[in-house]
Amino acid sequence: MKETDREAVATAVQRVAGMLQRPDQLDKVEQYRRREARKKASVEARLKAAIQSQLDGVRTGLSQLHNALNDVKDIQQSLADVSKDWRQSINTIESLKDVKDAVVQHSQLAAAVENLKNIFSVPEIVRETQDLIEQGALLQAHRKLMDLECSRDGLMYEQYRMDSGNTRDMTLIHGYFGSTQGLSDELAKQLWMVLQRSLVTVRRDPTLLVSVVRIIEREEKIDRRILDRKKQTGFVPPGRPKNWKEKMFTILERTVTTRIEGTQADTRESDKMWLVRHLEIIRKYVLDDLIVAKNLMVQCFPPHYEIFKNLLNMYHQALSTRMQELASEDLEANEIVSLLTWVLNTYTSTEMMRNVELAPEVDVGTLEPLLSPHVVSELLDTYMSTLTSNIIAWLRKALETDKKDWVKETEPEADQDGYYQTTLPAIVFQMFEQNLQVAAQISEDLKTKVLVLCLQQMNSFLSRYKDEAQLYKEEHLRNRQHPHCYVQYMIAIINNCQTFKESIVSLKRKYLKNEVEEGVSLSQPSMDGILDAIAKEGCGGLLEEVFLDLEQHLNELMTKKWLLGSNAVDIICVTVEDYFNDFAKIKKPYKKRMTAEAHRRVVVEYLRAVMQKRISFRSPEERKEGAEKMVREAEQLRFLFRKLASGFGEDVDGYCDTIVAVAEVIKLTDPSLLYLEVSTLVSKYPDIRDDHIGALLAVRGDASRDMKQTIMETLEQGPAQASPSYVPLFKDIVVPSLNVAKLLK
C-alpha cells in the first residue's frame, strides 16, 4: 500500500507541476481543485458500481449451485426408485410375450384387411392398367400401377416385419402380384419410346412428354422414400430402385448417337461427295435439334434436370465419337479437307454452335475439341503426303498433255494481247489455287504449308519442263520439217515462262502474309533462274532456226561474189524481218533480249566472215569499194534492228558500229596510218586478239612486214580495259588456220 501511495503522490505532484508552470495559473488553483474533485467523485462512483455488480453475480451463482445440488439429490432418488421397479417387473414383461405376438399378427391382419379390396381386385386393375397403357393414357396407367405396387409392398413389408426369414409367404405375395412387374416394364417401354421421339413429340404433343417426365419424377420420389426406409428397416421391395431418371438419360444418349450415325446416306462408291453430304446433314440435324431443345424441351423438364446442357453434352460426345470414326477410315485428300474444315471451322461457326438461336446457353469456348490435336496432326500429315503425290501426278499429266499439243498441225492459242501460249500455266496454277483455297478453309498454317509444297513441286516441274523443251528443240533440229508449227509452239513455251513468273508472284502475294517465311522466299530466285534458262534456250533455238536459214547467205559475205554485187545482206535482212514478224508473238521481256541477241549474232557472223579471209583486196580501189559496201550493209542492218527494237528504248547502234570501225581499217589509204587505226580499233574493242588483227591485215593485203610486226608488238603490251557495259563481239570468233608467224612472213 505504501508503494502505491508513493506512486499516487508522485503522479499527483507531476500533474500539479504541469498545471502550474506559469504565475498566471495560480489564479486558477481553486478551479483546478474543483475539477479534480469532480473527477475523483466520478471514479469512486464507477468503482462502487462495479464492485456491487460483482457481488450480485456471486450471490446469484451461489443460489443456483444450491438449487442444482437439490436437483441432483432428487434425480438420484428417482433413479433408485426406477431401478427397484424394473427389477420387480422383469417377470411380468416375460409373461407378455404372447400379447406382443398377438399385436404383431393383429397389425399384419389390419394391413391385409386394409388392402383386402385391392387384393381381390388385382386381376381387374392389371387389365385396366394394360388397357390404359395400350390407349396411351400413361398418367392414369401409372396411377393404377402405383396402387398395385403400394398394396404389394405394404403386404411384403408387414410379412418382412413379422418373419423376415419366411420366404414361402414372401414368394406367395410376390407371385400373386407377379403381373405388376410386367406392367412396369411395359409402361417403361412406352416411356422410352416417347423419349426416343422426344424432339418430334415436343413439337406435336408436348403434353405427352410432360406426362412422361411427371411419371419419372414420381418414380424418383418413390425410389428415394424406399431407400430411406431401407436404412431403417433393411427392406427393399422387388424391382426397386427403378432409376428411371438415369435410364431416361441413357435412352436420350443412345437416341442422339443413333441419330448422328444414321445421317450417312451414301458411300464413296455411290457418291464421291458422300462425306460432304454426310457432314452437312449432321450440321443441319444437330442445329435444328438443339434449337428445339433450347426453346421447347426445357419447358417440359424440371430445371434441375438441366436437359439442354445434358443434351448439348450428348450431341458433342456423339459428334466427337463419329468424327473419330471417320478420321480412322482411309480417307482421300479431299475428304480429309472436308472433315477438318467441318471439325475446326464449321462446328464452331455461326452455321452451327455459334448460331444466334443457341446463344447464350452454348459457349463454344467451353466445348472440348471434336478431334484431339494428335488426330488432327495425323490427318494433316496424311493430307500433305497424299497432296504431294497428287500434285506430282497432276503436274506430270499436265506436261504430257502440253507436249501432245506441241506436235499439232495447228497454231497455239493466243491471249488477249495476241501472244502465243498453251494452257499449261493456267492448268497448273488453277490446280494450285484450288488446293490453296481448300487449305485456307482449314487453317493459315496449313495454307502456308501447301503453298510451300506447291512452290517446291513447281521447282521440280520446271526442271522437267526445261528438259522436255530441250528435247523438243533437238528433235526438230534432226528434222526441221517436223513439227509443222515448231516456231509457234516454241514461242508459246517462251511466253509460258513469263506467265509462270507472274503467276508465282501473284500466288505468293495472295496467299502469303509474310513473304520472308522460311522455304518460300528462297524458292523464287531458283524458279526465276530456271524459267529464264528455259526462255533463253527457247530463244536460242529460234535464233538457231533463223541462222540455219541464213547460213548460205552469211557464207557469201566478204567473198569475190559479194564484192561483185551479191545481195546476201538484203536476203539476210528480209529473212530476219520475216522471222521476227513471227517472233512478235513473244512477250516483251524475252522478245527484247532475243532482238538484242539476234542483232549481236548477225554482226558477229559478219565479223566472222571478215576474219575468215575469204577475200584479200589487191588495190586501194578494191579496199575502198569493199569498205563502202560494208558501211552500207552496216547501215542496212542498223535500220533493220532499229525497226525490230522500236518500243524497247534500247541503243542498237553499237553492234553495227563495229562493222563500220573494221571497214575504216580496210578503207584506210595511207598504210603509215594503219598502226593508229588499228590501235583505235583495239582500244574500242578490248576482246580483239592478235589473230583477229592478223586476219584483218590479210584482208587488206597491203600491210608491210615491219608494219605487221609493229602492230603485233603493240598488241602484246596488253589489252585495253573494257567498260562494264561492253558486250564482247570478237571473243567467240575463231580465225581458222591462221597464225601470227605465217602472217609475219
UniProtKB/TrEMBL annotation:
Q: Which UniProt keywords apply?
A: Acetylation, Cell projection, Cytoplasm, Exocytosis, Golgi apparatus, Protein transport, Transport
Might you report a single GO cellular component term?
Answer: perinuclear region of cytoplasm
Q: Per its record, what are the GO molecular function terms? A: SNARE binding
Q: Which Pfam families match?
A: Sec6 (PF06046)
Q: According to the lineage, what is the superkingdom?
A: Eukaryota
Which GO terms are recorded in the biological process aspect for this UniProt protein? Answer: exocyst localization; exocytosis; protein transport
Q: Which InterPro entries match?
A: EXOC3/Sec6, EXOC3/Sec6_C
Spell out the subcellular localization from the entry. Cell projection, Growth cone; Cytoplasm, Perinuclear region; Golgi apparatus; Midbody
Question: Would I find Protein transport among this entry's keywords?
Answer: yes
Q: Which PANTHER family match?
A: EXOCYST COMPLEX COMPONENT 3, EXOCYST COMPLEX COMPONENT SEC6-RELATED
Q: What does this protein do?
A: Component of the exocyst complex involved in the docking of exocytic vesicles with fusion sites on the plasma membrane.
Tell me which family the UniProt entry assigns to this protein: Belongs to the SEC6 family.
- Subunit: The exocyst complex is composed of EXOC1, EXOC2, EXOC3, EXOC4, EXOC5, EXOC6, EXOC7 and EXOC8. Interacts with EXOC3L1. Interacts with BIRC6/bruce. Interacts with MYRIP. Interacts with SLC6A9.
What protein name is recorded for this chain? Exocyst complex component 3
